[in-house]
Amino acid sequence: xxxxxxxxxxxxxxxxxxxxxxxxxxxxxxxxxxxxxxxxxxxxxxxxxxxxxxxxxxxxxxxxxxxxxxxxxxxxxxxxxxxxxxxxxxxxxxxxxxxxxxxxxxxxxxxxxxxxxxxxxxxxxxxxxxxxxxxxxxxxxxxxxxxxxxxxxxxxxxxxxxxxxxxxxxxxxxxxxxxxxxxxxxxxxxxxxxxxxxxxxxxxxxxxxxxxxxxxxxxxxxxxxxxxxxxxxxxxxxxxxxxxxxxxxxxxxxxxxxxxxxxxxxxxxxxxxxxxxxxxxxxxxxxxxxxxxxxxxxxxxxxxxxxxxxxxxxxxxxxxxxxxxxxxxxxxxxxxxxxxxxxxxxxxxxxxxxxxxxxxxxxxx
Amino acid sequence: xxxxxxxxxxxxxxxxxxxxxxxxxxxxxxxxxxxxxxxxxxxxxxxxxxxxxxxxxxxxxxxxxxxxxxxxxxxxxxxxxxxxxxxxxxxxxxxxxxxxxxxxxxxxxxxxxxxxxxxxxxxxxxxxxxxxxxxxxxxxxxxxxxxxxxxxxxxxxxxxxxxxxxxxxxxxxxxxxxxxxxxxxxxxxxxxxxxxxxxxxxxxxxxxxxxxxxxxxxxxxxxxxxxxxxxxxxxxxxxxxxxxxxxxxxxxxxxxxxxxxxxxxxxxxxxxxxxxxxxxxxxxxxxxxxxxxxxxxxxxxxxxxxxxxxxxxxxxxxxxxxxxxxxxxxxxxxxxxxxxxxxxxxxxxxxxxxxxxxxxxxxxxxxxxxxxxxxxxxxxxxxxxxxxxxxxxxxxxxxxxxxxxxxxxxxxxxxxxxxxxxxxxxxxxxxxxxxxxxxxxxxxxxxxxxxx
Lengths: 365, 452
Fold this sequence. Notes:
Strand order of the largest sheet of chain B: 5-6-7-4-8
Structural class of chain B: alpha/beta
Shape of chain A: elongated
Oligomer: heterodimer
Order of helices and strands of chain B: HHEEHEHEHEHHEHEHEHHHHHHHHHH
Largest interface: A-B, 29 and 25 residues
Radius of gyration of chain B: 28 Å
Structural class of chain A: alpha+beta
Largest sheet of chain B: 5 strands, parallel
Strand content of chain B: 5-15%
Shape of chain B: globular
Number of helices of chain A: 6
Radius of gyration of chain A: 25 Å
Strand content of chain A: 35-45%
Helix content of chain A: 10-25%
């Protein structure tokens, strides 16, 4: 195999795939990247057996072929190369010679047939959607994924295909984020899938604002085809909890808030939220919202926001991180906070189908 | 759901309602039923797993305080699917909607934590004055890991129940909450795994295994002595767990400060929490142990045999149990009535071994003289400067404690003193032991060096 390629293109392609590279030492081949050169293109593939990514980069191929090379090492070398033009020549023993300007590297690889192939998706159910929609949906939900490994069904985002929309859900038991993507698909495609955290993270890195993504689902696997890149992942087996149970039926009070102003105030006040209880208090009174936090023996903070509010006066406490997370992820100027009373969950909403349920913390008197 | 449970649930609900909002109660608890109430746990049926998730994440404090109001003390809460209700209300794990571990971590067998002997529980542990502190501390740790005594350091001689207590902690914690990660290893296994990890450059996995434990039990920690890199690794593991408020329990055959070649930073950490000593059981406890053991082995022996064994085998519970086993199997195999002579014959070697450990007054004098750097002759001489008189009194005290000699015999052995002098010496030393820590330490050190 022999090809030449520009540094920028190769680096970009390596960046897309190298995060997946396994740190497990049990299978050395998994720390390698599979390089496959056909007439005009170079394909790069990495996998940790759970998640696999395949990227493409334009190349001038002199001789087609395939090999695998240690991914991190190759990435580090390419990044440091002095010239923009890179030639890579791989001999029959999988030793790669990398030439660029005055530099020469020889890297020993492993044969390509040892590399585990990505699963095939023949006869899979396929839907196509705008990349932007999926990216938005994941951005609005993925921060609420549980990191508690003992609750493994929660270590991912639920993709619920139903009634011509995809509902994305993530929860960790104390909060729940849900977003919807409108999409037409046949009835037979209705199903619930849980995409693991790692795949979601990688997917978010790969998705762009333009173009379509083709989603293929078949037993236990899901593939996201972004035209030039492909991400394949195992699904989490198990039943996702019935998230609808969590969503409060109706709100007593609805408060409209300037997202960014609210977020900034929360961020400042939370500097004085104690490490132990870690809560900020929202005190609602007529046309005013006071955000307060205090830590005994350290001090306290308070910010006032002018809001349109005519309901009864009351206070509710939240974990500031949990409250700020959706505010950071959203882009809308205004958000709504729906509340019932101090002990019931609050709901963050926007004009489009999205909601975020957050459990209050106990107010210590 | 039987009537009693229904009533209990009503009382529990009444106590719970004021703790949470009406809407939350209606949403999360109106479909819940109580199907089983035991001394330590209650079982609730929930319609599906979101109930368990949300109740566990958000309403446990409220539920526990309602439980305390209803039952008077805390209970662990189990959840199960409604299909399991009625037909199977007991603690059957297959029916609980447990958020099972990820498959690759699911190596844990359903019955117990690896390495734990199911027989070693708190129920099978015989408590006596020799071990009640260690037992109480262990139970406290098992009931509330990482709350009270962290680390718990248990030490004591061979066969006095260190391993038993540790394993009891492990099983207790594990039985109460299955999703707690309990790790029990001997320090030897820890070292071997560490070496193995270095060899295969698998340290990350090794660290992950130990540093993600919720309860780490390490047996026979004294074997870490002299193993420098293992000590270092253990030091970091210890710190990670301690900072993460995870329970650590260690056992050793001697106090931490006496473990040879153990780094000071480790010694000081071991002494950080609670140190509990296990002492050889007194005769009543030995008797109780024998009876309990005989009960579990379902053997019947004459009272005299128990008495004989309890009197003659003093130092080691394991040996005590071995002797009982030997006597019992002889009785069942031969079918003959056991007499004192047959028992004595049967246990000849064990009794000899025990006998060899009996200490003579001369040994005591020699050891004490050596320790205080006085001449052996001073033990029997008439000279009475404090530098000689006190060691002599210590030796008399030890002779009184460790041998069967009468006051007169002791007096004779110390240069023909009368029994009043010996009695005075014993009282004086006892008083000083009670008052002065360093003297207590000195004497217990000499004591243990004599017993070894």
